[in-house]
Design goal:
Helix content: 55-70%
Number of helices: 5
Oligomer: single chain
Structural class: mainly alpha
Largest sheet: none
Number of strands: 0
Radius of gyration: 24 Å
Number of domains: 2
Strand content: under 5%
Length: about 90
């Protein structure tokens, strides 16, 4: 924890008014943004495939985007939508 605090406060005057912003930006610089982006893309693609297979593509994408792999489970456990037959032609 001391190492993280040292990295977060590196080069920051803690008495200055913008110390919070500088510490926040230092912490955000430690986050592996590229890895998070690509994992999110993988989650959404798998969610879209599961949703397409279950007949709920948009729902699979949204749930995977919001919940990640937990969204896959939600899409998997929801029942498939029932097929609605086309309407009959009008009688003459």
């Amino acid at each position: 924890m001391d190492e993280l605090l040292a990295k977060a406060t590196q080069g920051v005057d803690v008495d200055s008014p913008d110390a919070f912003l500088q510490i926040f930006l230092n912490l955000m610089g430690l986050v592996p943004w590229a890895a998070l982006f690509w994992w999110s893309v993988v989650f959404v693609v798998v969610g879209a495939l599961l949703g397409w297979w279950r007949g709920r593509t948009l729902e699979g994408v949204v749930l995977a985007l919001v919940l990640g792999p937990i969204g896959w489970i939600v899409v998997w456990l929801r029942p498939r939508p029932k097929a609605v037959p086309p309407p009959l032609p009008p009688r003459r």
